[in-house]
Amino acid sequence: MKKVLALILAMAMALSLAACGTPSGPAVSDPVEDEIWSSTDENGNLKLTERDDVGENGMVTTANVYATMAGLEVLEQGGNAVDAAIAISYALGVCEPNASGLGGGGFMNIHMADGSELVIDYREVAPMGQDAYTWLDETGAVKNNGTANSVGGLATGVPGTVAGLEYALEHYGSGKLTRQQIMQPAIDMAREGYKAGGTLVGAMNDYYDYMVTDYKVLGDYYLKDGMPYEIGDVITNEDLAKTLELIAEGGKDAFYTGDVAQAIVDTVASYGGVLSMEDLASYEPAIREPVKGTYRGYEIVSCPPASSGGTHIVEVLNILENYDMASLGVNTAESIHLWSEALKACFADRGAYMADTAFADVPLAGLTSKEYAKTIADKITNESQSWDAGEPGAYEGNSTTAYSVADKDGNIVSVTQTIECFWGCKIAIPGYGFIMNDQLHDFSTDPESVNKLEGGKKPLSSMSPTIVLDAEGNAFMSLGSPGGLRIWPTVAQVISNVIDHGMNMQDAIDCARIFERGNADGICYEPAGENAPTAETLAALQAQGHALTEKGAWDLFFGGCQGILFTDDGIEGGADPRRDGKAIGF
């Protein structure tokens, strides 16, 4: 990165030390040559502290310190929160390539200081040459031993990231910085290198077999002498740097037409895919109104379909609003029971109704109705129960990696983006350095499902970049998380931790989480950490009929929430110890 970043970060850390008396930012001069804040300790374990920060003029919190630094650099150069979000997105594609990048998609939730708000939906779409039977053999089973929809060419959708970021820059960027300036931190990082963190190294080890067998191009980029990198090793990607430069110079067309597009089509075809040049050239992001609701006087502004996340955040909070959650306490048997039942009811509705609204009639008004939520709350008893989808249509009126950025002017951006599973469909584009998504995995393989695969359709998502406003309409919170189906339950729990239990942002993120979707696993829980359920609590839940599944403490299963909280003392940034996240304010 540019040497000016060293001065910016040194000044930010000095101010933070003077204000708080404890280290809260990375001490750096150059991200590779000198020391930089690490998410792991000397034993390679994720640090459970040093994640948060407080700023007066803005805040950036992401899943990787290098991406946080990229966003901070753009803000310091005079860019707004949207400019910084774009810089972060490209930077995450460099330093967190296992989770997101040019070959993926996402959702950007924007709340501008003037009150305008929108969601840019740059979710991938299915190639026009695929349909609900593409993956199935003559018996109706998924081909390739059940992997055709998650690995290889038939698993990848038309990527949307570049188109979405271009739209954001053109319509909501500050106009003070060029595309080249905004993308330069990512370009520099790809060329000069970054130090591998624990989450990335873990992903290299977990997916090593793919990299040395059928997907060796992926291994060429992310193995060192045929073996996974170690924490602290420097990784460079000159091919990705060149691709980013092409986009910086030529914008969207440099990616969706010409040599890059042809390389995508040819490479995907070599792995059995049918993505075409026409699919790429015709891709456009969808501009949507956010899903909205309220919770105890605060306004929830979140992601609409093709994400299910925002809708079900509103639905689950509407259900819980019927109870005094504050008095029930954090992760007590009573509160976990209510969360479990509410989540099961929401997941039943999700399976029955949620899909791309261009292909299905989704009863959004009913699903987010407080009256409908009350009918669910009225059915909750003291025993664990199974839930079927409700009838939200009766309540219709006429009328889904995460990071957050806030700037000094009051603009807020919350983004969740992904290539779906770690390393996507495992296809890396040779000569260009990026990885294709396996987003079609989010379609149902049932040809009768509302969320079945259809050409041009967006698969259902759980991504939930969310902004919370206070009763006067002022910024209160911005947050999001990765984690698949756990995304929106995680975001809802963090919101409740702040509003119901008065936690600051870092404590709300650190708090032990639960997850329930109504299957045989029952309640999945973290056995240790902040406010983890006690043995007595777990026994009480079992007595109510709940199945329990213990996950690891600080487990990636529960995502990696990044959030911002606006307080009288400044802007608080929190980052999740379950991943490599870091917040930096200025």
Provide an overview of this structure.
It is a single chain. The strands form four sheets. This protein has a seven-stranded antiparallel beta sheet with strand order 1-18-17-13-12-9-8. A seven-stranded antiparallel beta sheet has the order 7-4-3-11-10-2-19. It has a three-stranded mixed beta sheet with strand order 14-15-16, covered by helices on one side. The radius of gyration is 22 Å and the shape is globular. Residues 1-31 have low confidence and may be disordered. Helix 3 runs antiparallel to helix 5 (161-172), helix 6 runs antiparallel to helix 10 and helix 16 (333-353) crosses helix 21 (535-543). It starts with a helix and ends with a strand. The protein contains 21 helices and 19 strands. By secondary structure, it is of the alpha+beta class. It has helices at 4-20, 65-76, 81-95, 143-146, 161-172, 179-192, 198-206, 208-212, 216-222, 238-250, 253-256, 258-270, 277-281, 309-320, 325-328, 333-353, 364-367, 370-377, 487-499, 505-510, 535-543, and strands at residues 53-55, 59-62, 105-111, 117-122, 194-195, 234-235, 286-288, 291-295, 298-302, 402-406, 412-418, 466-469, 475-480, 514-515, 523-525, 548-550, 562-567, 570-575, 582-585. Helix 21 (535-543) links the parallel strand 15 and strand 16 (548-550).
